[in-house]
Input
Amino acid sequence: MVEKTPILDTLTYIFLITGIIIVGFPVIYAIIAATLPIEDVSRVPMPLIPGDQFWVNIKRAWVEGNLGTNLLNSFIMASGITIGKISVSLLGAFSIVYFDYRFRTLVFVSVFCTLMLPVEVRILPTYEMAANLMGPFQKLWTVLNLDGVVTWIAGHDIVVTLEWSILDSYTGLILPLVASATCTFLFRQFFLTIPEELCEAAKMDGASAMTFFKKILLPLSKTNIAALVVIEFVYGWNQYLWPLLITTNPKMMTAVIGLQHLIPAADDLPYWNVALAGSLLVMLPPILVVLFMQRWFVKGLVDPDK
Amino acid sequence: MWGKRCFVNNETMIKRSLFSSRTLPYLLILPQIVVTLAFFYWPAAQGLMQSVMRSDPFGQHSTFIWFSNFTALFTDPLYLKSIGITLFFSMSVATVSISLGLFIATMANRALKAKAVVRTMLIWPYAVAPAISGILWLFLLHPSYGVIALGIKRWFGVDWNPVLRGSDAMFMIIMASAWKQISYNFVFFIAGLQAIPKSLIEAAAIDGASPFRRFWTITVPLLSPTLFFVTVMNIIYSFFETFGVVHMMTQGGPGGATNILVYKVYQDGFIGLNMGGSAAQSIVLMTLIVAVTLFQFKYVEKKVQYAG
Output
């Protein structure tokens, strides 16, 4: 603060505390609700003194929301997306920045075009792709009328169907979401700021491209990788539309989607305490990741090229 | 989310000191190319094809019908209504979450001693899934059990019922979507505020400018690039990522009052099995987002001044 303004300073802190309470209110209220028995939670207004039913509600949410399986699925999906995205884009950015080859610009531009296209805008065709990864080859097969060729060679009717579905599988949950240009661009920006001398020195010492990547580039990218781990883990954990579409098997359901079954319907008993206990449990892992890795996360979110 | 400064280094698109190899660069970029082709370009091409075709729900037969799907789309009162709803929704979400985020960030920036603590206490809603935010607010605004709903009924004398009244349902999804986004905006604003040189503020203070005047004449103009970037990101967020909020809270109802565009694509395509119509809607959304992205790059890169 530049000058002494005691009134304004007091106001600042009052507003700040009010702001924090407003932002925290939905969760604080949910925590209280999750500790109450159903008689209390359905009273209007609900008592604001926490009850002692927290573990009972959590247990019930765990069983009814099938949280054991769902949380594991969410964890596998979020980790898979995080690891997949970061490895694919580290290698891609290395290729774009440190090599000069004929199709470099084409590759760069075609990847750039996908920068901000979220899965939400292309759900149907992507779903069809996931339902049959061999779709493009099947189309090609049909166009070239290869069935006819095979039939002619074999001497009797043969219909070839190419099919490889990744619906209801971890591959299906992870792979389509790994396709993202954002991380590649982040690493590209970062690699461009690394001094030329490092690469020259490494080459002079006889290091190969991959040695340079492993021994110099990776250690230098540690902070950026840490930031992206947080951002992508939260992104993967919180996915909604894609897992909703491609999983029909309850064993493959993710935790966020599973919560839907805990919300009391209009004519049910209002088990909001259970629904909120489940919600708290599901939102906890990404919150912990953000809080524990806050420093890197903020740096990565706000300062992508440093 | 990022990409803010992608083209800053246009002149140094590549290193001067390079490695040379015939096959290695292709091998390194291969995974990226494969996933991009399989899950971006092929689906986009398929979507484009479907949008000019009419096919039966089983995908057996399709006929080429030019732009009929698009004409049908833009003459469909339900779709036009959905556009209006989406615009209103995203403007409201952006306004609420940006103004609160900016206000809290300004306050936090003044509180020199507690900055780290304050940031920790405000940053975590970023990690809450939009769908879970939907559950929390569904409870707070529940017509029979919600405490905020009770307040609204008592103090404003409104017969609050988001299950039956569209405007109430709209208010509900705006609150749930904006709440989660406050912390995202806060993080960007506090970084932007910290980048403003202290000397400027001090100089203005010496010249006798009051804290409020300094805010409007120095802070806000210097914050404009951040403000612009955050606005674009908020609009993209409210267009697409709020699917979970709508699905958890209202399923587009009552009577289509919260049927935002991204929810309508899902409903028409997966519930209604109208492939052509849904594909046409996807194409419209894709065009929209590409336009916003290009606009942002052009504008943010060239017209807005960076401070510090």
User: Anything to note?
Assistant: Chain A has one domain: 66-302. Chain A has a mean pLDDT of 86. The CA atoms of residues 222 and 296 of chain A lie 10 Å apart. Chain A has 17 helices and no strands.
